[in-house]
Amino acid sequence: MDGRLQEFRGDLTGYCYRMLGCPFEAEDAVQETLVRAWRNFDRYDDCRSPLRSWLYAIATNVCLDMVRGARRRARAMDLCPASRAGTPPGDPLPASAWVHPIPDSRMLPANGDPAEPVAGRETVRLAFIAALQLLPPRQRAVLILRDVLCWTTAEVSGLLNTSVVSVTSALQRARVNLRAAGVTPGGLPAVPAGQRRLLDRYCAAFAEYDVETLVSLLREDATMSMPPFAWWLRGREEIRRALLGAGRPSDGVRLVPTVANGSPAFGQYRAAGPDGGYRPFALVVLELSGDLIRDTTTYLDAERLFPLFGLPAEIPGTGSDEFAVAASHQGKSELRIS
């Protein structure tokens, strides 16, 4: 495949993920986009449109085809009212019901303008991705291209083969719909620079199942959810009661840090047996607000998510520092968000 096409893989992944709300479907969409482009590359005319515009036009058509007739992806908060502590989680919903997290490395540049990754993270937060799924597909494409990728209205109209007036109207409706959902591209809180201490405290409290410390790290109106169950909690005290009711895991846990959707995340491992090793259990994504946690989403689909995030298939039960484990596995010296 032409190397010029491959250069756009990361950017296209970010676009398709925002359109589809699922990293696995986004990768499929990008692959289909590049295959179509490669097959038709001899007919591409750079005098008519830049390569970037041509690829995004193909990707848009691929995504629109994929979402046609598909179930809208969501977070638990979009599906039902908040549960109460002690309420059974109910039956799991299929994977197609959920907005899934994505590693930053799949869609955000590792170099270039230092401000670009920060700005990009504000539009990949789980809350924003879920809100995008509320929009009709073409409105979604218009808003992403205009407000996230900063294309001009004329460029978007050319890509979608429609008028400037139609693009402007769709953009206005999309913005109104997002505001009604309480989310805007620039309205999401940035991750604080001094987050390491908060995350250290979270890891220590989680490992010891110190409920009081865990709760002290939450905002008063914090939320907690656990896909694939349409079960979620709102409020520090409700979460406290749920954690106390669940009881401390008898086999112990380990956390290995990573980054998902521009937010700190952890691979959660549970003891595998008498050999002392720990096996994947869940991916925990934290959304921060200032120096507190405003949302915790625990994804139980470890079988698919751990390989996606490059997390170890097993970690030794040595009691070693989890950040050191992550560093040795991923070549990082510390967890970095900003």
UniProtKB/TrEMBL annotation:
Keywords from the named record: DNA-directed RNA polymerase, Sigma factor, Transcription, Transcription regulation
SnoaL-like domain span: 200-277
Domain of life the protein comes from: Bacteria
A Pfam family that the UniProt record links to this protein: Sigma70_r2
GO MF, one example: DNA binding
GO cellular component, as recorded: DNA-directed RNA polymerase complex
Start and end residues of each RNA polymerase sigma-70 region domain: 7-73
One GO BP annotation of this record: DNA-templated transcription initiation
RNA polymerase sigma factor 70 region 4 type domain location: 126-177
NADP as UniProt keyword: no
TM region positions: none
KW Transcription regulation (keyword) present: yes
Assembly information from the UniProt record: Interacts transiently with the RNA polymerase catalytic core formed by RpoA, RpoB, RpoC and RpoZ (2 alpha, 1 beta, 1 beta' and 1 omega subunit) to form the RNA polymerase holoenzyme that can initiate transcription.
Homology family: Belongs to the sigma-70 factor family. ECF subfamily.
UniProt name for this protein: DNA-directed RNA polymerase sigma-70 factor
